[in-house]
Design goal:
Elements: E1 4-14, E2 24-29, E3 34-41, H1 47-62, H2 70-94, E4 102-103, E5 105-111, E6 114-120, E7 124-129, E8 132-135, H3 142-148, H4 154-159, E9 179-184, E10 190-194, H5 196-199, H6 204-211, H7 217-230, E11 237-248, E12 256-261
């Protein structure tokens, strides 16, 4: 017997107030219950290339994980991100104007009543459950390393001059080590995937309050972007929201997922 997860999802991206171009990309694939956010770097026409390549290659490599065992799905997640890394890295070697480009990526798939997340960089995944907001991923960044070592507090890290320096990205080196996260899915869960253009402008308590507001995921995504821009919009802003409307069944076998609505 398999679980059926019914969800409503929405994705939005915005250039922000300061930047002239958008180096973020995202992908929502409701029929595969797959969601990808990527924040490119390397300058205009390089960062956006890296992020577009990442979302496309990862989606192609992952395919549909809903009937795949959890351990196999996690390995496919890692392989897909590493394959994107390899292809992007090779392009940086072959095209002079693409040298130094790379991208973050945060990928989520829903399967057999669980979520699977793969992550490199500082684009984040959060879960709002029973009124509480939890950050599911951990940034690959200089300031996070300083927080882990006890040299900075989380509050100090937010305003540190090196807060945008990441220590791991897709495409910068010959290989990369993605982190993966697995957990259960419950009715009423709200997942947020976002680039640091959102989380760098809005801290967690404010994110929490906006996500607790009434409205469909598309309206909440728009509210998040509007608030990031109201606070300065210093970077490109990308948001994916996935609300779990129902989970039926109880089997540990392959999941079935259905998108209730998929707003543009």
């Amino acid at each position: 017997m398999s679980d059926t997860v019914t969800f409503t999802c929405a994705g939005r991206t915005d250039v922000g107030i300061v930047r002239s171009g958008n180096e973020d990309n995202y992908l929502v694939v409701p029929e595969h219950a797959m969601f990808v956010v990527a924040d490119g770097m390397g300058g205009h026409a390089a960062g956006e290339v890296a992020s577009e390549m990442a979302v496309r290659i990862i989606a192609d490599e992952l395919g549909d994980l809903r009937d795949v065992a959890a351990d196999v799905a996690a390995e496919r997640m890692r392989h897909a991100i590493r394959e994107a890394n390899a292809v992007i890295f090779q392009r940086t070697l072959s095209e002079h104007d693409k040298r130094g480009m790379g991208t973050t990526t945060t990928v989520m798939a829903l399967l057999d009543g669980r979520y699977l997340i793969g992550q490199v960089g500082d684009s984040r995944a959060y879960l709002l459950r029973d009124g509480e907001l939890m950050q599911l991923t951990k940034d690959h960044s200089y300031v996070q390393e300083q927080v882990d070592a006890g040299f900075l507090s989380p509050a100090e890290a937010r305003t540190h001059p090196y807060s945008n320096v990441i220590t791991r990205c897709v495409g910068a080196n010959v290989d990369v080590a993605p982190d993966t996260y697995v957990g259960t899915v419950q009715r009423g869960d709200m997942f947020l995937l976002a680039s640091d253009g959102l989380t760098g402008m809005i801290d967690d308590p404010e994110l929490h309050q906006i996500l607790l507001g009434e409205g469909e995921p598309d309206a909440l995504a728009a509210a998040l972007i509007d608030e990031a821009n109201r606070r300065g919009g210093l970077d490109n802003i990308t948001v994916i929201l996935v609300r779990v409307d129902d989970v039926q069944g109880g089997g540990a076998g392959g999941a079935r997922t259905q998108a209730a609505t998929t707003p543009a």
